[in-house]
TrEMBL record:
<dbReference type="InterPro" id="IPR027417">
    <property type="entry name" value="P-loop_NTPase"/>
</dbReference>
<dbReference type="InterPro" id="IPR017871">
    <property type="entry name" value="ABC_transporter-like_CS"/>
</dbReference>
<dbReference type="Pfam" id="PF00005">
    <property type="entry name" value="ABC_tran"/>
</dbReference>
<dbReference type="Pfam" id="PF08402">
    <property type="entry name" value="TOBE_2"/>
</dbReference>
<dbReference type="GO" id="GO:0043190">
    <property type="term" value="C:ATP-binding cassette (ABC) transporter complex"/>
</dbReference>
<dbReference type="GO" id="GO:0022857">
    <property type="term" value="F:transmembrane transporter activity"/>
</dbReference>
<protein>
    <submittedName>
        <fullName>ABC transporter ATP-binding protein</fullName>
    </submittedName>
</protein>
<dbReference type="InterPro" id="IPR008995">
    <property type="entry name" value="Mo/tungstate-bd_C_term_dom"/>
</dbReference>
<dbReference type="GO" id="GO:0016887">
    <property type="term" value="F:ATP hydrolysis activity"/>
</dbReference>
<keyword id="KW-0813">Transport</keyword>
<keyword id="KW-0547">Nucleotide-binding</keyword>
<dbReference type="GO" id="GO:0005524">
    <property type="term" value="F:ATP binding"/>
</dbReference>
<feature type="domain" description="ABC transporter">
    <location>
        <begin position="7"/>
        <end position="237"/>
    </location>
</feature>
<dbReference type="InterPro" id="IPR003593">
    <property type="entry name" value="AAA+_ATPase"/>
</dbReference>
<dbReference type="InterPro" id="IPR050093">
    <property type="entry name" value="ABC_SmlMolc_Importer"/>
</dbReference>
<dbReference type="InterPro" id="IPR003439">
    <property type="entry name" value="ABC_transporter-like_ATP-bd"/>
</dbReference>
<dbReference type="InterPro" id="IPR013611">
    <property type="entry name" value="Transp-assoc_OB_typ2"/>
</dbReference>
Length: 340
């Protein structure tokens, strides 16, 4: 017998007037996984999160949490907690009382809820700021307080709506590590919304890529990156060289649309006879990125390629003639068909 999933969506649809924000979506989130919904602004991912949380009502379809149909259930009656990008902390309450607020709403006695709140703060390494007000904390500390407040009620599912978006790069990277470690310690199901593909790939057990209210691909980070199903996914998740059917036929002898990741291409200053696919071109631009160099290559037939190389391996100069090679197995067949 299959275990009951903590989140199950069936034919979920949400319309705002004439706009279809979520279009007949089916989704199963497994128990204890870190699941990310990835897509650009307006793709429907945040609306799906708000539907699960109960902040929006579905136009049609059903939402099940741990086997219970909660489609018409009020937000406060659902066994989920939500962490927002703007923290949503009460400025007039201490950190301790902010964390304990959800327990207060559940009528947990003061002594018990403060004890549990201190345990949650200890988990986030924030015991020393329990009596401060939110305005006395850094951005990273406020985000940890928001997480502590969300987990203190021990929800079945934790919903995170771009919770790291307001942080600077270094702090964001640090919080990504802490967030993943927290999820592993708790074993709670995390449903995470982000528009940052690197964040989704580094944190998630599985990723759903959204476009126009639908899921266009779902899989592990490696599956999404190494085997994108469509040109949209290949371009949105990382960078990819796209070849239409005519170009594929000319270069590879296969009349089908393909994608090729830039790091799969090797550049040489002379022809490589044992390579499977070899093309010649001229360097149009070479951009230094610190650990990498992004080379823009124009092939003799006018095709444009992007190549990523480790900095220091080669010195590429604009206008220089080079040879590019790659393995046939690194070509990814693509389709424009979209999943539901």
């Amino acid at each position: 017998m299959q275990p009951t999933p903590p989140v199950l969506l069936r034919a979920l649809t949400k319309r705002f007037g004439e706009v279809v924000a979520v279009d007949g979506l089916d989704l199963t989130v497994h128990d204890g996984e870190f699941f990310s919904m990835l897509g650009p602004s307006g793709s429907g991912k945040t609306t799906v999160l708000r539907l699960i949380a109960g902040f929006e009502r579905a136009t049609s379809g059903t939402i099940e949490l741990d086997g219970q149909d909660v489609t018409a259930t009020a937000a406060h009656q659902r066994d989920v907690s939500t962490v927002f990008q703007d923290y949503a902390l009460f400025p007039h309450l201490s950190v301790l009382d902010n964390v304990a607020y959800g327990l207060r709403v559940r009528r947990v006695p003061k002594r018990s809820r403060h004890e549990k709140a201190r345990e949650a703060l200890a988990l986030m390494r924030l015991e020393q700021v329990a009596e401060r007000r939110p305005h006395q904390l850094s951005g990273g500390q406020r985000q940890r307080v928001a997480l502590a407040r969300a987990i203190v009620v021990q929800p079945k599912v934790l919903l995170l709506d771009e919770p790291l978006g307001a942080l600077d790069l270094k702090l964001r990277e640090q919080m990504q590590v802490e967030l993943k470690q927290l999820q592993r310690r708790l074993g709670t199901t995390f449903v995470f919304v982000t528009h940052d593909q690197e964040e989704a790939l580094s944190l998630s057990d599985r990723v759903a890529v959204f476009d126009q209210g639908r899921i266009v691909q779902i899989g592990t980070p490696a599956e999404i990156y190494e085997r994108p199903a469509s040109p949209y996914v290949a371009q949105f998740v990382g960078t990819s060289n796209l070849f239409d059917s005519a170009t594929s036929q000319r270069l590879f002898g296969i009349a089908r649309r393909h994608g090729l990741r830039p790091e799969k291409i090797q550049l040489h200053h002379e022809r490589v006879p044992d390579a499977e696919i070899v093309v010649e071109g001229v360097i149009a631009e070479s951009i230094y990125l610190g650990s990498e160099i992004r080379v823009h290559l124009q092939l003799d037939d006018g095709t444009q390629l992007i190549v990523l190389e480790r900095a220091g391996e080669h010195t590429e100069h604009r206008g220089e003639k080079v040879v590019a090679s790659w393995s046939r197995r690194d070509l990814v067949p693509l389709t424009d068909e979209k999943a539901s």
